[in-house]
Design a protein that fits this description.
heterodimer, A: six-stranded parallel β-sheet, globular, disordered N terminus, B: mainly alpha
Chain lengths: ~230, ~260
């Protein structure tokens, strides 16, 4: 672990000069009576690899969901590549992000159909040629070609997780939001995923993870406390 | 054409047949006797009321009154759908009304106009019974479709959110759930079409035969009404789900729990 930051982390000045990949300012999230994030702030610089850690229920996944517009903060502002996240901008800003959930739910159909489906969304049609790279990524992440014809519901947790990572990579986003991306992987496959993701200097990563390999490789580690980890700059 | 008249006393005596199902309920202790008696009473009163009203409507045969009656029928169906699907009245009453009008109007007007060549489109003898049949089926299909759609959305919310995260717009992300809901709503009509005539003589055909027409004429009517019902339910289910989406999702594309009563 390069650095472990509790509540007050120092600014990462090394990669400034352009707008932060993600900036969260004084975010307050309440679920009914419970305050999950209370004045939480965070800045992820372009190319930075930041890992959020902390006990269960402190709001790590909620941070990612706020950035995706799945949870609407009661207070605070979120900026993605300098653009404020609003109900108008969310649809465009989501196309800058790649999200890998902890337990990806892939819906119905075969894995091949599932890989193809996002490339039929208007936002991704220009990337359709990236599907040509799919066999290479399957091999890299130790998934057999035969799996493509299997129903997604029949895949194991690890296979789903790797499929979600491959899909995220094929969509060529510059910001990755990863929620325990190696939790269902063995150490060998987890390492492969980690090495690939962290090798690209242009990609910013905000990951929720307890995986020591992830924590060790991260530029920064932010530990969220029960009060929501204020000012993680 | 001649239809045998049912006398008032004869009809009243026919109610005595209900002693058999009621007796079975008592014997088997099926706890729906009260509900059954209430339903029989409601059926009688409602049909008597409609009968009297329709006699006036038929004798006047004013296109405005006939149109107004159709609007009332749509409004009642609309109310039943919104309540039956557990949706908030204020948000969904109008959009689902529009969906029902859209789904019912096209097959009904094509039926009465180009198919039957009636000089008056709003002829009570045709628009009210045919409109009622289309509307009744639209109501059932809408309830199945809307419920299936939101149940699937709730059960597979994670997959839906994941699709949004991959850059899908709302209309793109809901498509698998729309497909699932339309399938569930339309399958009963498809199954009915596949077995019609083999299992039982359908209602309209029976009515036309009882009205004194020959069976071939009745069959033509039945085929036409099945096409009208299938077209109407298809249009109304798709429209109803798409129009309900505007009120049930927030501006960030997330399902709004406040759109539902429970």
């Amino acid at each position: 672990m390069k650095r472990l930051e509790a509540e007050r982390a120092t600014c990462l000045h090394g990669k400034t000069g352009s707008a932060p990949a993600i900036e969260m300012k004084n975010i307050v999230v309440r679920f009914e009576a419970k305050t999950v994030l209370d004045g939480f702030s965070l800045r992820l610089m372009p190319g930075e690899k930041l890992v959020l850690t902390g006990e269960s229920g402190v709001g790590k996944s909620t941070v990612l969901k706020c950035i995706l517009g799945f949870v609407i903060p009661a207070e605070g502002e979120i900026f993605i590549q300098g653009k404020r996240l609003t109900h108008d901008s969310v649809w465009t800003l989501r196309t800058l992000l790649s999200y890998v959930p902890q337990e990806p739910e892939l819906g119905d159909g075969t894995l091949h159909e599932w890989f193809r489906s996002p490339f039929f969304f208007r936002a991704n049609t220009s990337l359709r040629n990236n599907l040509d790279r799919l066999p290479g990524f399957l091999e890299r992440f130790s998934l057999s070609q035969e799996l493509l014809h299997k129903e997604v519901g029949a895949l194991s947790g690890g296979e789903k997780q790797r499929a979600a990572l491959i899909s995220a990579i094929l969509l060529e986003r510059k910001i990755f939001l990863l929620d325990e991306p190696t939790s269902a992987l063995d150490s060998k496959n987890g390492k492969k995923v980690l090495e690939f993701l962290f090798a690209n200097p242009d990609v910013s990563i905000l990951a929720v993870s307890h995986d020591h390999a992830f924590l060790d490789e991260a530029d920064r580690v932010v530990e969220l406390s029960a009060r929501g980890g204020k000012n993680a700059y | 054409m001649h239809t045998e008249e049912i006398g008032l006393w004869a009809l009243s005596s026919y109610y005595a047949l209900l002693i058999i199902p009621l007796g079975l309920m008592i014997w088997l202790r099926i706890p729906i006797i009260g509900k059954t008696l209430s339903a029989v009473a409601r059926m009688t009163l409602q049909l008597l009321f409609v009968g009297f009203y329709l006699q006036i409507v038929f004798s006047l045969n004013s296109p405005w009154i006939n149109g107004l009656w159709l609007v009332v029928m749509v409004a009642v169906a609309d109310f039943s759908i919104v309540r039956g699907c557990g949706l908030r009245l204020r948000r969904f009453l109008f959009p689902l009304f529009v969906a029902l009008v859209g789904g019912t109007a096209l097959p009904l007007l094509v039926f009465v106009g180009p198919l039957l060549n009636r000089p008056m489109l709003m002829d009570a003898q045709y628009v009210i019974p045919i409109g009622g049949m289309i509307l009744g089926n639209c109501l059932r299909a809408d309830i199945i479709g809307i419920r299936s759609f939101y149940e699937a959305m709730n059960q597979r919310e994670k997959a839906f959110l994941y699709t949004l995260s991959q850059g899908a717009r709302l209309h793109e992300a809901i498509r698998p759930y729309l497909r699932h809901a339309c399938r569930a709503a339309l399958l009963p009509t498809v199954a009915t079409m596949a077995t019609i005539g083999l299992v039982a003589l359908p209602g309209m055909m029976t009515g036309v035969i009882l009205g004194g027409a020959d069976p071939m004429t009745a069959i033509k009517y039945q085929i036409s009404i099945m096409i009208a019902i299938f077209t109407g339910t298809s249009i109304t289910v798709v429209l109803a789900i798409l129009m309900s989406v505007r009120g049930s999702f927030g501006p960030y594309g997330i399902l709004d729990p406040l759109a539902f009563r429970s």
